[in-house]
Amino acid sequence: MVALLVSLRWRQLGHQLSRNPWMIVTLVLTGMIALGMLAGLTAALVALRFAAPEAAVTVMVLAGTVLVVGWWVGSILVSGDDSLAPERFALLPLTAGALLPGLVVAGATTIGGVGTITALLLMLLGWSISLPALLSALILAPVAVVTCVLGARVVSGVLAGWLARRGTRDLVVILGVLLVASSGLLLNLGMGALFRVNDIGGAFTAVTDIVGWTPIGAVFGVSASVAQGDYLSAALRLLIALATVIALWFAARGLLAARLVAPIQNSGGGRVRSGGLLDRVLPATPTGAIAARTLRYFRRDPRQVVNIVMMLLLPAIFIGLALMNGLQDESVGFGPALTLIPTINALLTGTIIQMAIAYDNDAIAAHILGGVRGAQDRAGRLLGFGLIAVPLTLVLCVATCLLAGRMDLLPGSLGSALGLTAISAGAGAWVGSFLPGRAPAPEANPLGRGSSGGVQSLLAMIVIGPITLFVGAPALGFAIAGIWNPALGWVSLACGVVLGALALWGGTVLGGSILNRRWPEVLAEVASES
């Protein structure tokens, strides 16, 4: 059974790679990034091993604990994409006891599992400060891997019923995005608090001692105690580590057995209501219908809700960082530059428009069968997005000008933000016609495979970014110059409106003409399950 499930997992991956060449490129790029991170980890461990041997023990325990927590928390985000979910075996004559070992080994031999095993082996460099610690870490490496995999299965199994509800899934996704996007701000707060501690090394050592006695860090605390020559503590921590694995094993088996006889089914999002005022305001044309549907997506679809949340959160993070670091003080001179922060949303806008078709998945076939022209599709999506983006940008520009105490810079702030956002949207409408990107299918995990658009979106950003900066240079340049001469802000606003309108027109016409020729290819790309 173990060999069967492992081979099944890898055959599924091979099938996906054979059907989607873009996934091969994604895998290669991801592998290169992972290798770079592992190389950095190796360099850091070697430096710690010889420069600060005592600190190496602390780093090993904390790094290992973060690894375990990453597995457990990450299981919530990827549970919807589990190709070996228990429900897939519910109709087969299999027991949880026979199935669980194969699922554990299959989980440990995924790409993430192989990366974890590699990281644990590299961590042996840090444990080499002591031969007994090195041997104990080598022996307990499988226990650490099993702790990661079993814990992930238990966490996802306990929350499976809760996550099966549409509202709960959407809330978890939005909170997860908020947490990830705010990581820089949280790190800044943490570093500020850390610098206020008199003895930083002592604080980390105290945390390590505590973590080493917990289920998530005991397996690494054993080697730490052995390195310090405290074999009694090492024995007690070993008991905690083994007890954790045993408890997780029985919990995972019980949850698996329950799901084999009572499969969990995802629930929908509730009753769909008519558009009402929205349908009456927008024109009764294909463009108006697509715009109305786009607005509904931004309200109902968690994948689209995340995009709007990020357009509010990203400027807020930069504003928060500026205020926390005192950059708005007159002595620093950064205060007026706060008015340019809303312009950063242009980075998100291009990707949102570029991936608009990908979010439709195979439902885009309705456009093809209904005879919708490419220009109508592009114009409708731009109109729907603009009805949200323009008011949001106005609010952000006014808010940043109030924070900076420079309402006279509002024209330049609007010119830069609206201009570059419109240019980025137009470029995204054009690029999205031949690089539509990848998005999770409807009802799938919004943070699962394809959530970032894949390699196509990476290539699209490489194209959209320079276009936005080049075409929008006058609007941005005059907005910056307006900090010293506010009258130039009106020039920025005029440039932003004119250049933005031209970019939207160009994106609609050029992107629409490409779509008219490529509708079948676009449908095949966005509807592919691989």
UniProtKB/TrEMBL annotation:
This is ABC-2 type transport system permease protein. Keywords: Membrane, Transmembrane, Transmembrane helix. It comes from the Bacteria. The keyword Cell cycle does not apply. The keyword Transcription does not apply. The chain crosses the membrane at residues 22-48, 55-78, 98-125, 137-159, 171-195, 202-222, 234-252, 305-325, 337-359, 380-405, 417-437, 458-484, 490-510.
